[in-house]
Design brief:
30% of the residues lie in helices and 34% in strands. The protein is of the alpha+beta class. A hairpin with a 4-residue loop joins strand 9 and strand 10. About 8% of the residues have low confidence.
């Protein structure tokens, strides 16, 4: 039964983690940003650090960073697209959504970068020099239908990413479940009883001076 609980929790955790990445997902080993039904290949570079190696979202250091979207829909090449980066002040971490962003009273105050809407054929590129590590949220907006329909993608990411992510929490959760199972099944109680039974009995010898 406890294995089933672990499996269920693991699947739920992985599902939440996958959904946490918002508008950016992996398809066929490539990162794809989904802006409603519109899609684009999404690549992030830090040329001063890693040359031509690209990242999907999380970045190892605060440095000059290039965000690239290669359109997969022709419609995106014909509509205005803007790109915003804000400090993640939602309190939701990687689970931040547009509803959390729209609840921020002053979006400009937490914005660290903003590219106004532009029309770019095929490839959209912006460059931002991060000065601080921390949690951020990228927001991409495409405007279609005579400027009356907004398609928005939100992707939380980390600058100064250690690579550990949620794994320490996940491992700790599994250990907690295992310990709870051992207690509830009585194994720890039996182990302690067996250990106590194996201990040699200590004889107390009372000594004294004999009088002759």
């Amino acid at each position: 039964m406890w294995q089933l609980c672990v499996l269920i929790l693991s699947l739920a955790f992985c599902a939440r983690l996958a959904s946490a990445h918002g508008g950016v997902v992996e398809e066929d080993d490539r990162c794809v940003i989904k802006i409603s039904y519109l899609k684009a290949h999404f690549k992030v570079y830090q040329p001063q650090l890693s040359g031509h190696d690209d990242f999907c979202e999380d970045l190892p250091v605060a440095a000059e960073t290039v965000f690239v979207m290669e359109y997969l829909h022709d419609e995106m090449a014909r509509v205005p697209v803007d790109f915003r980066i804000i400090r993640n002040v939602t309190g939701k971490g990687r689970f931040a959504r547009w509803s959390d962003i729209s609840a921020i009273s002053d979006l400009d105050e937490v914005t660290v970068f903003y590219q106004e809407p532009i029309i770019e054929p095929h490839v959209f590129t912006v460059i931002h020099d991060f000065k601080e590590t921390g949690d951020y949220v990228g927001i991409v907006t495409a405007t279609t239908g005579n400027s009356d329909r907004l398609h928005i993608a939100v992707f939380p990411f980390e600058v100064g990413f250690t690579g550990l992510g949620y794994w320490p929490f996940f491992v700790g959760l599994l250990l907690l479940i295992q310990v709870q199972y051992l207690f509830m099944s009585g194994r720890i109680a039996r182990w302690r009883a067996e250990r106590k039974a194996r201990k040699p009995e200590l004889k107390v010898i009372q000594g004294g001076n004999d009088a002759h």
